[in-house]
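REQUEST FORM: STRUCTURE PREDICTION
Request ID: SP-0412
Submitted by: Lab K.M.
Chain count: 1
Length (residues): 196
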Amino acid sequence: MDKQQLFKLIGIIKNKSQVDKIPIVRSQTIELIIKLINQQQYQYILEIGTGYGYSASSMLICKSIKKIITIENNKFNFEIAQYFLKKTLKVTCLNLNAFDYEPQQKFDLIFIDGPKSHQEILVNKCIKYLNNDGCIIVDNIFLNKIRQKNILTKNQRTLLNKVDKFHKWLINNDALQTNIIEIDDGLAIIKPKLIV
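STATUS: Completed
RESULT:
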């Protein structure tokens, strides 16, 4: 797939996602991820939360990428993503629960854009699958859209409490080096601290 075909595909996926109200990664966030991949020359990516494949296809802009494995628990979303991404060759879509995934390789970048209520568990699980100099990016760590509502449901309050607890856990975790980036809905860039 050449660059022109890839940009066309990204546009189609973005449009379809917006029409079907499937959340996609925001513009500043995907720009930062692409910049990071290019700077570090990352080759192997794991994504948790495929949606229709917008972020996975966008990351293919980076020439260094050799393989993206993207996991989607929702069967319908997975089938649409599979349809869109099958021609890209470098992307493998998996329809399963991220908590059940046991990779056979390590990754340079793990992008977590999946379940917001179990992020701590996912980070703890994924950190051991990072290559040296790799990082985990967790998207939407603020959930501002929910936070700005005047009246919250019980589920929304519970979710915000979990997200806030995760945020504090990241900041206070002595084993992790975390950089909170205040763009879009916030993201955390996480690396294991080197033991000296």
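NOTES: The mean pLDDT is 91.
Reviewed by: T.R.
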